[in-house]
Specification:
The chain is mostly helical. Helix content is about 85%, strand content about 0%. Helix 1 packs across helix 3. The radius of gyration is 12 Å and the shape is globular.
């Protein structure tokens, strides 16, 4: 894999770790989605907003089951 691909994967991993922290600290799904979208739009604007929102929603509900 190229260095660029590795870098992108590392950035995505950092984003999803941060998003998971936001989910764990949020009281509602709307709060989590708002904060995650702020993070995505500021630092990871190359990521697809709809895909991120869908994955964040799934993660939020999975955390409720834990």
């Amino acid at each position: 894999m190229s260095k660029m691909s590795n870098h992108v994967l590392e950035l995505e991993e950092q984003f999803y770790e941060s998003a998971n922290d936001i989910i764990n600290e949020s009281f509602t799904l709307d709060e989590a989605l708002t904060q995650i979208e702020l993070l995505r739009s500021r630092a990871y604007n190359w990521m697809d907003a709809d895909q991120v929102a869908t994955e964040a929603e799934s993660a939020y509900y999975c955390n409720l089951l834990d």
